[in-house]
# Entry
Amino acid sequence: MQNKDAIFQQLAEILEELFEISPEDVKPESELYGDLDIDSIDAVDMIVKLKQLTGKRFEPSEFKSVRTVQNVVDVVYDLMVSEA
Amino acid sequence: MLIMPSLGRGRIDRGWRIAATGLSFALFGLGGPIVAALISLIYLFYALIPQDKHKKYELARFILRYTFKLYIGFMKLVGLLTYEIIEPERFQTPGNLVIANHPSLLDVVFLFSIIRNANCIVKESLFHNLFTLPPIRAAGYISNSDAQFLDKSAESLQACSSIIIFPEGTRTRAGEPLKFLRGAANIAVHAKCDITPILIECRPATLLKNQKWYDIPAQPPHFVFHALPPISIKPFLNDDLMPSAQARKLTQYLEDFYRNLLSH
# Structure
């Protein structure tokens, strides 16, 4: 998971596995709440999965201002780079 | 000519019911704040008495329940509606998670008049309103934006409160496909509790979304509240899945369950 493309792929897999969202529906600009029907409870589970896959520790508060898929990718990327 | 008298009576009856409907709304508008003020006073006293909070909530809910009972009783008395409750004992299981479809504005009033010690999930905005905050606090209602809303709901069920949820999140929009929000299922998965489904029927339809208050049906509506056998949570608990995924499967089941009920 070194680059944003890889993070995006991982995220799409998580969304499919957890919420049965088809990978074709997952675009960088997709809104989590509006387009993908992901609520705050779903988001907590999604963050748990991201932690498992990356081995990094995330605080849910770091995802507070996240709205789109691209936002999630950026936050994860920034956290990984800053901790590297 | 022979039809005329009954037609005339029908008009008088309808005129009376429009007036009584207006009066009912006025009563709700005037009586509501009085009861809210009363409960707010009790809430202030609560701070002084050392007692279990769930016991305190029960008193506020008792007052609310009988206020709603009185209100429904008034509307029945003046001929605005009739109703029946099927399987009444199923409504009273302590620590019950109750879900219902939501055809009419009165569903909330009815369910809170029927179910003992009822809790509910309310909009966050009502916590920021000076008039609604004290009664909501007194009754121990839970905010939908509370980060601990699942834990608080489970704790409330544990303390033998019933939680009433309309999974549609708003009144049913006639003609639109049924769509459930996942809150009720999330609570059921988190608290590992069964669900009691209520089927509400209201014929003819009245007080729909986007309907004017005086636009009343030709006949007074008849409400039926039917408590169906509880839905077991066991088949939906699956440690291989994340809780949110379990809740999604349960929501899908509940949606299909109601779609099937309502198509008959």
Notes: The two ends of chain A are 12 Å apart (CA to CA). The helical segments of chain A are 4-19, 40-54, 69-83. Residues 32 and 57 of chain A are 21 Å apart (CA to CA). Chain A has one domain: 4-83.
